[in-house]
Amino acid sequence: MTLMCFVTLTGYRRRVTKQQIKYFAAAKEEVKFEELKSLDLQKCATVGEIVDGMRYCAFGARMLGEVAKTIHGMITSKKKPILIYSGLPDSPLGLLLQKFVAAKWCGKIIIPSEYAKPKNGGENAIVVGAFSERNAEAIYRKPERAIFINQFDLARPGQIKDGYFPDAVFADPRYVMPVLYRTLEEWINGKRSVMGTLMADLGSYGGVAAQVARGAKALRAMMNDKECLRFLTISGAMTVGKMDLVICDMIESGMIHAISSTGALMAHGLVSSIGLKHYKYNPKYSDTELARRKLNRVTDTLEPETNLDTVEQVIGDVIEQLDGSRTLSPTVLNKLIGEHLAEHYPKERGILKSAYLRGVPVFVPAFVDSELGNDLYIHNMKRERRGKKPILMDLESDSRELVKLVTKAKRFGIFTIGGGVPRNNVQNVAPLIEIINERLGATLPPRRFTYGIRICPDRPYFGHLSGCTYSENESWRKAVKDGVYAEIQADATQVWPFLVKYILETSQGAPAGATGRSPLQKEKPVSIGYNASYGASSLKQGFKR
């Protein structure tokens, strides 16, 4: 669906300044962007339906969804595409590609050196995996249209631009091709594949496919442990990438009991929570032009500045109710925002709303490094002008809450998207407990995480936390030696939805051991780590710890 960008800009439902009116007038010029849609697993029952929904997301998910649609168009045309593949014909991937030919979806499989010969060329091609630079010129020049599926960023010169990735999926073909095969089987032959079938299939392919299959088993094991406190740690632009409802599903189904996130991720998630939109980037518009129109680009997605203006007003409505007599922690602020969303946006789904309703605390350890931090800073300046006390954040309060959460549970596990501060914030609770005991003579029960599932494309040799292995975590006394771990080196948007849907599917919406309560809770599903005697409303006049 193609929409005028102005549709979103005029969706600004609150106060409008003269400067913004001038901005709206400028935005009326012919600028068209495609509206993106959050991936809704509640509306997806099969692999093909998830892949189709990915077309309206961002990053690797969009690459996968759009390529699937393009290949479907090639296959259903009179002139079938060919497969260019240099791998072993009797490998699991090679045998799968032969199924593409046997199904008459593709004309033939040809190796790159053969394709480089003069007699070949002029057809559509699906280039699977790597190829030698000796044959690169022929592969780039001879096909009428070429789809590139590899983890090495190989594509035609000039095909890929900053924020624009057509006709390519830069991921391990041992994972991508089985997903595409299941998708095309459904779209062409009506043979529907559920997640259990996909996960059982992936294990034999090796590479990322095998990592995903192991990840599904590890996640299932963590779900089955009724005495495990489960964290979701998440970084990267996952809400701009339209994965926000995947997080909601994890909260609402009881898959997770606490979240550690970047503030930016939560702020951008508020956009969808209040009914505003993100848009697909169009490379015909330069970043200079986007800046003039205040359309902020996040890789291949646009966030209109007016979205963030509205988010700031929502946060302002929450903060205005506080008298500043007590300090505030990020978890409590997020709870207040969630309560506000539940009251004022009852028809919209949103992360903080779902977290509030299910009693799931949302930690934001790097609070100032976000739109949330910016908004609080601005509001404190406004309060100062009016002679009101500022709202001061107490980050140590959340450290105490983390220690309390982990020491009350017998075991804890972590499901990680990306890395960064949110990941380390939760993992770091283990050495924090250790040094509290050693340096202060305390007797807190030692804790290390027992389960870990991590989805991040980064390799260990880059030297940053996102690529840090669970084995390395063990050296810091963060991870149990014989724990259940899975490390998936992939774009999370291409993998994460399938894993979550697998758990929802195999548990019929209620993961074993996940009743919607944490292992810390007894009969009533109260907020984890909070005193159940007060609700978010009581914080408006300050509260006692």
Structural write-up:
With 545 residues, this protein is α/β, with parallel strands linked by helices. It has a domain at 60-197: 3-Layer(aba) Sandwich (Rossmann fold). Helices cover 44% and strands 13% of the residues. The chain has helices at residues 5-9, 18-27, 47-54, 59-75, 92-102, 112-115, 133-141, 173-189, 195-202, 207-224, 244-252, 263-273, 287-292, 305-319, 330-344, 351-358, 371-385, 395-408, 420-427, 429-440, 470-475, 492-506; strands at 2-4, 32-34, 82-85, 109-110, 124-128, 145-149, 168-169, 228-234, 258-261, 279-280, 295-298, 301-304, 362-363, 411-417, 449-455, 479-488. The longest helix has 18 residues, at 207-224. The protein is globular and about 80 Å long. It starts with a strand and ends in a 39-residue tail after the last helix.
What proportion strand? Answer: 5-15%
Estimated structural class: alpha/beta
Q: What's the gyration radius in Å?
A: 25 Å
Which CATH architecture of the domain at 60-197 would you pick?
A: 3-Layer(aba) Sandwich
Strand order of the largest sheet: 13-9-8-14-15-16
Question: For this structure, what is the CATH class of the domain at 60-197?
Answer: Alpha Beta
Main sheet overview = 6 strands, parallel
Principal-axis shape equals globular
Helical amount among residues, as a percent range? 40-55%
Q: In CATH terms, what is the fold-level topology of the domain at 60-197? A: Rossmann fold
Helix count? 22
How many strands appear in the DSSP assignment? 16
Spans where pLDDT lies below 50 across 5 or more residues: 1-16, 509-516, 522-545
Give the termini distance in whole angstroms.
50 Å
Mean pLDDT: 88
